[in-house]
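Support request from a user on the community tier.

User writes: "When I paste my structure tokens into the form, the page sometimes reloads and wipes my input. The last time it worked, I copied everything first. Here is what I submitted, just in case something in the input itself triggers the reload:"
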């Protein structure tokens, strides 16, 4: 049974919505067409402004191998560590031990409020980390705190009866949290988690400030080497790389969400797992 929180639009309202949608779409296409025409008049689409991508293979090698690969390397390592550490921090934040909750809360509020660049500088200057480790260090500290809060929000949104049912069949509070509640929270908050991973990926560009050679820095180096004539073409190609990676992450999240829903509709843990923990050997 569905609950409607607003009146269903009638035929006239749907017709007005359709008309305004068409008008907005036409206006957007017109603006894009005017922008493209203006760019064409300025010679932006001339072949000579794009020849570094068709005649010079070293440009693609720099963008893909030195730029994009370095970005994915830092983002991938930071994402894995942040997800694992964020899950542990969320569990600590929901612990029944008061001192553990307090430590987790202080950690989250501290590192969620500090700029990522400041933590990168601290790791590079105070801790004498390499530039790569400093970038990963800053990304991990910040995103661990944010991911922990995302998972905590997912945990608190679950029905309280599930925890009570898990305790009733013999699970300890920690087992109920790890086996029953946390997997559901991850599935429920998957879109938010993916959005945060996308933010993490974009934040790797802050490594440019501390000297990390990633995609944005390679873009700047190529612009300085080839000249300002190629600013627009380099910008478009670099932006397309970021968009392509982020779109892939979003589609992967949709696939995982659908697969998880198919395997465990409603997020209920398999009965065999509950039985194993409620009747230990």
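"...and here is what came back when it finally went through:"
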């Amino acid at each position: 049974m569905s609950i409607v929180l607003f009146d269903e639009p009638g035929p006239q309202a749907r017709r007005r919505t359709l008309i305004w949608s068409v008008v907005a779409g036409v206006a957007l296409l017109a603006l894009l067409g005017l922008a493209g025409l203006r760019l064409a008049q300025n010679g932006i689409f001339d072949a000579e402004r794009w020849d570094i991508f068709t005649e010079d293979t070293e440009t693609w090698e720099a963008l893909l191998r030195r730029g994009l690969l370095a970005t994915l390397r830092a983002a991938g390592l930071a994402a894995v560590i942040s997800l694992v550490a964020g899950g542990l921090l969320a569990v600590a934040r929901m612990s029944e031990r008061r001192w553990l909750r307090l430590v987790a809360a202080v950690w989250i509020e501290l590192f969620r409020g500090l700029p990522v660049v400041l933590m990168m500088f601290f790791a590079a200057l105070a801790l004498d980390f390499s530039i790569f480790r400093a970038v990963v260090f800053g990304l991990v500290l910040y995103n661990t705190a944010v991911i922990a809060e995302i998972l905590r929000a997912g945990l608190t949104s679950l029905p309280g009866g599930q925890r009570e049912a898990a305790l009733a069949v013999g699970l300890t509070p920690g087992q109920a949290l790890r086996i029953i509640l946390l997997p559901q929270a991850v599935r429920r908050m998957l879109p938010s988690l993916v959005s945060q991973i996308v933010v993490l990926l974009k934040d790797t560009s802050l490594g440019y400030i501390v000297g990390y050679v990633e995609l944005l820095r390679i873009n700047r180096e190529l612009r300085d080497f080839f000249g300002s004539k190629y600013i627009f073409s380099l910008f478009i190609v670099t932006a397309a790389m970021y968009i392509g990676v982020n779109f892939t992450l979003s589609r992967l999240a949709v696939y995982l969400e659908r697969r998880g829903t198919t395997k465990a509709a409603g997020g209920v843990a398999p009965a065999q797992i509950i039985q194993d923990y409620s009747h230990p050997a």
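Agent notes: The reload is a front-end session timeout and is unrelated to the input. Residues 57-93 form the longest helix (37 residues). Confidence is low (pLDDT under 50) at residues 264-281. Escalated to web team.
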